[in-house]
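Notes continue from the previous slide.

Worked example: a multi-chain complex. Inputs as given:
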Amino acid sequence: MTEEIIIAGFGGQGVLSMGQILCYSGVMQNKEVSWMPSYGPEMRGGTANCTAIISDEAISSPVLNTYDTAIVLNQPSMDKFEDAVKPGGLLIYERNGMTRKPRRTDINIYAIDAYEASVKMNNTKVFNMIVIGGFLKIRPIIEMDNVVKGLQKVLPERYHHLIPLNEEAIRKGMEIITVEHKLN
Amino acid sequence: MKELRLMKGNEALAEAAIRVGADAYFGYPITPQSEVIEYLMANRPEDRTGMVVLQAESEIAAINMVYGAAGCGKKAITTSSSPGISLKQEGLSYIAGAELPCVVANVVRGGPGLGTIQPSQSDYFQSVKGGGHGDYKLIVLAPNSVQEIVDYTKLAFELAFKYRNPVMIQSDGIIGQMMEKVELFEQMPRVEPDYEWATIGRKEGKPATFVTSLQLKAEEQEKVNLRLQAKYREIEKNEVLYEEYDCKDAEYLLAAFGSCARITRKAMELARKKGYKVGLLRPQTLYPFPVDAFNKIAYQVKGILTVEMNAGQMVEDVRLAVNGKTKVEHFGRFGGMIPNPDEILNALEQKIIGG
């Protein structure tokens, strides 16, 4: 198993932490992982992305130009990465703020209303965890227990009381993700 | 017990410097290297081992602080990125001339000038051919993973003290910024220097110790040069490191170092899937260069393509090593652009296999 993922969106949406949480969780499940951020002159409100690779084998290149999965959280990211999904691959997008639907017909496409769900949970900070939940529902490459262990590693101890909330957000994402285009 | 963590290359370098028992870090922030000094400041190694961490007023000050610490036999390290490393060249030449040990890491970004903050390998010439003045060499280590950043930080101090010579760790924006699993070695103790060459106070009955790179008499300076050259021959004999992937049956060879070797390895896998018998040779030491390894494989392969994030620097050393025995071409992206595996395979087909 090798899953090559690009996660892209606005700075401040938690794009980089999503990749880190997936990688930490992968480590907890004895996977090989690599995480590479775009570290250009980005700032809050600008675009940010990271490449996360989770694999059973040693990872050669940490930098890629095509991906098994693209998780795009704003329109510029969809414009940039929709074409970079491998045929037969997976595109997950956040509906809020998108001005158009994906155009590809040779990939699996899922949508999620993670922002809306985070508002309903009274905590927009868990937005990215809802998206992770959606992703793990479609690609169950990491078990929930290991995601929680990953969170314990990523979060400083003073935030450990927030882990149940994050777990709830992940489960919420698993519930609300919807299919838009599925290959046979 | 060995410890497994997920770390950025820059953070791993900082942690390894603490664990190797370094006495001092002097540095100045610059992207994409700043996490080294940030990590050291946040981790307060002065509380852990007594290691001094200081943000100097400039890169030039930092390298001269390293010079001073090294003169006292201390394990000192500084890190920077390309424009900052240029500023350190005078200091490096002096330290090499005075034959003192130290470790310097360059998290390379695109140049020339202030250039870009994106990853590059365009400082190969500067590191390997001597960026400062005078006939001197740095030992240059080129890690290609976060794990090698840790291992080479330890190795760098060993080599620096073994040969009393500055050692350069040639990282780049990719290796510095990426996160990978890493196994950390156990904390090593800091040691009180007890070297004859160290200026740690004159002992009874012993002559005074001088640290200098100045010899006004030509006869004396030539002796220094001869001694340095003899040392470099020893280093070339003993310290070459390289790795070969699928070279046994290779008809074509890719050559790459550092982060670019990771991407090139992916290109090699793609080429093998296409039915080409391609191998990869990765120098882990850029100086001393694996001359013999290239020389040997030159008899076997029909051509060599070096892949670098620069306009063609290591390719010159590969050509010197194979000395005309086989064709050597170069493919590169530069200015902070990263080559992708498909374009490397394309270049291999165009320049070597079909060419």
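Summary box: The radius of gyration of chain A is 15 Å. Strands of chain A lie at 2-10, 32-37, 47-55, 67-72, 85-94, 108-112, 178-181.
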